Amino acid sequence: VSELDDFRERVRQWCADHVPPDWRTAQTGVSDAEFAAFQKAWFAELHAAGFAVPHWPREWGGGMSVGEQIVLYQELAAADAPRLVLAFVGIHHAASTLLVAGTDEQRQRHLPAILDGELWVQGFSEPEAGSDLASLRTTAHRDGDTFIVNGQKLWASGGAHADWCLLLARTDPDAPKRKGISYFLMDMTTPGIDVRPIRNAVGDSHFCEVFLNYVAIPAANLVGAENAGWQVAQETLGAERGMTMLELAERLGNAGFRWLVDECARSRSDGMRPLDDGVVRDRLAQFEIEVTGLRGLCRKVVEGHQTGGLGPADASVVKLFYSELLQRLTDFGTEIAGLPGHTVLAKPMSSGWESGAWALDFIGSWEWTIPGGASEIQRTIIGERGLGLPREPASA
Amino acid sequence: MSEMAEFHDELRAVARDLLDKAGDEVEWRQVADAGWSGLEVPEELGGAGATFVETAIVLEELGRAAARSRYLGHVLAVGALTALSPNDSRDALLECIAAGTPVAFASGFTLRNGVVSGRAEFVPDAEGADTILLLADDDGTPTVVSSPEVVVVVQPVLDESRNLAIVTADGAAVSEAWPLPGDPSALHDRAAAAVACDSLGVAEAMLSATVDYVKVRQQFGRPIGSFQAVKHACADMLVQTSVARHLVNAAVARVAEGSDATIAVAMAKSYACGAAVEVAGKAMQLHGGIGYTWESGVHAYLKRAMLNRALFGSPAAHRQRVAARY
Questions:
Q1: B282 vs chain A: nearest CA distance in angstroms?
Q2: pLDDT 10s per residue in chain A (396 long)?
Q3: Contact criterion met (CB below 8 Å) for B279 and B203
Q4: Which of A73, A182, A174, A54 minimizes the C-alpha distance to A115?
Q5: First to last CA, chain A
């Protein structure tokens, strides 16, 4: 315990020395380029301190225990440090894919590069393949040592800044839909890739459409066997879904909930504080209890992932509970903030999903209940894989 | 697996087996024979020298079985005794408890001039207990008192699996009076945590029964569990139960450590006891007309969950304790 206390003290001191005190103001209403530059600089600072990829294996630059990771995330949240938004897919999804299913060569090529700032995007969803991801239509035809890719990807978060893409494409159109998909690493500088940002409901243009027109990918960039891409994605991303939650749950507990209490403690124009209302206090307590439960579940998922004791739907339980809790909590923040809350027209970029700009945070919460398997899909996964309930009869 | 985890698994398996065979009511003799009556009694006094963590496993299994037993009241009394400084009369009583004497515990009494007075309602398992320990205020000093002259009147409630009573003392003679070191609210925390364990068991049982049922019940030519509306409701029951389990485990650990458990218990009690009512209610809904029959037994779980929610502090009262820190 005392070792963890020492570590906590070290992180706290580091945050005091390194978190830019004015970053929230400076990052509110900034251009996309300024946001990206800030993200890269912050990643480099965290990496220099050894805090960027605590969840990676030690030989690749990580190796923190779950207890240390939790302390790190708690302190970063308590210090209101910026979050790693652009690096997220690289340090979580790409790294996990490479570590579990990549070749040594692929790991050597990309893991150190990610630490040097290489950015990744996920090219999974398509206009006709959302919740039914396995029906994706983007094709990859083998031509010697190269695959030629054609199609369109959607909701590629951070696509405009990405150096590399985790791509799912159909390599066998005649196979059953889950058996004809391959998993590729795609260099975003390859000719034929056209990235167009889409403005989302909050007003940001973080996610993108990606058009793929005769894009050549070397066969060496296949992850796993040809036509085994669906299985690779299932193996690497299911568990990863839980891993990413550890940080987000600590953010919600140590930043989001704390700000909600602060919001309730501010005197209104009539001199009253929401916090003095018993109904408000009851709601706050309920939120704290649920956040506490979430944090415990996240810890269990990460520990289960490390010891092999992870249940088939545990990550879905955490994703579903987090996203809907975030939505309810930011909704309540919006209600408490009242009309003045509606005058907050921009939230600081690089902040967490709960930035204190409640109305925008509430709208932004759908970015958690829809992507990565919408809540409805998670409930189906929990029902079928977690509880063993019968599948729906296949549609015609 | 660690030795401790193996011990817990075994305790759970034995409890589940015993309760499966026992049916709705577990005889006290069975509880004593299983070694549960003296689980937390020190080994040198004939007990198992275990902690509240082990007691919690038995409590959860009793909830899972919705079993009628004398265990809850007994556990609260054992908690009061183990919180006392060791002394001959206390140790003698603990030895009897380890040997199978059932006891109960009630709070809210006053000790004046060597006699005890007061009235407590909804006291678990007081009726038929060999000794009823009373938590009494002795001019500002919390004191655990034993009196042969208390009056016990059974208090019927909707949940027939519980055994509650009104305990009255009106200038009753005192046979023992032990000053309680530490904060008496810890005993209340322990009681609330014990009920939360029971509710966790109720929720787990109702989730499991519902999943089994919707896998086999056919309508429209297929199992109703294949319909999203039903499947998603079951998923929500699992999420709630998982969150409840984490909060209950955290609270149990703190009670067992003897550290201040107030907030962890308030969280566990309010969440788990609320969730159990919702899960049992959803179980009744998903069992359809059968679930509403007396014979199905779902109502017994729902009533137990409802009573648990009200015992030892409502969810709102516990949330107030959490909110007092804001």
A1: 15
A2: 689 999 999 999 999 999 999 999 999 989 889 999 999 999 999 999 999 999 999 999 999 999 999 999 999 999 999 999 999 999 999 999 999 999 999 999 999 999 999 999 999 999 999 999 999 999 999 999 999 999 999 999 999 999 999 999 999 999 999 999 999 999 999 999 999 999 999 988 888 999 999 999 999 999 999 999 999 998 777 657 777 889 999 999 999 999 999 999 999 888 999 999 999 999 999 999 999 999 999 999 988 888 888 888 999 999 999 999 999 999 999 999 999 999 999 989 888 888 889 999 999 999 999 998 899 999 999 999 999 999 988 765
A3: yes
A4: A54
A5: 58
Q: How far off is chain A from B254, nearest CA to CA, in Å?
A: 14
Q: Can you tell me which residue has the tokens 């910026």?
A: A82
- Residue by residue, DSSP assigns B53-108 as HHHHHHHHHHHHHT-B-SHHHHHHHHHHHHTSPP-HHHHHHHHHHHTT--EEEEEE
| Catalytic residue list contains A392 | no
Token digits of residue A131: 């919740």
**Which tokens hold the place of A3?**
């070792």
| Nearest CA among A30, A14, A18, A396 for reference residue A203 | A30
Q: Which residues of A touch B222 (CB under 8 A)?
A: 390, 393
Q: Tell me the residue ranges of DSSP E strands in chain A.
A: 120-123, 139-143, 146-157, 164-170, 181-187, 193-197, 207-218, 222-223
Please answer whether residues A87 and A49 qualify as being in contact, where contact means their C-beta atoms are separated by less than 8 angstroms. Answer: no
CB A93 within 8 A of CB A103: no
Residue A151 · residue A115 · CB < 8 Å: no
Contact A387 B234 (CB under 8 A): yes
Whether residues B215 and A388 touch (CB distance < 8 A) is answered with yes
Q: Which among A282, A286, A292 is the nearest to B247, CB-wise?
A: A292
Give the Cα separation of A363 and A154 in Å (integer).
Answer: 20
User: How far apart, in whole angstroms, are the C-alpha atoms of residue B167 and residue B73?
Assistant: 13
- Contact indicator for A320, B239 with CB cutoff of 8 Å: yes
**Strand-strand pairing, A181-187 and B218-219:** unpaired
- ipTM entry: 0.92
Interface A:B, Cβ pairs < 8 A: 109
Find the catalytic residue in A126, A240, A263, A290. Answer: A240
Cβ distance of A289 and B235 shorter than 8 Å: no
Q: Which residue in chain B has the smallest CA separation from A265?
A: B326
Residue of A nearest to B236 (CA): A379
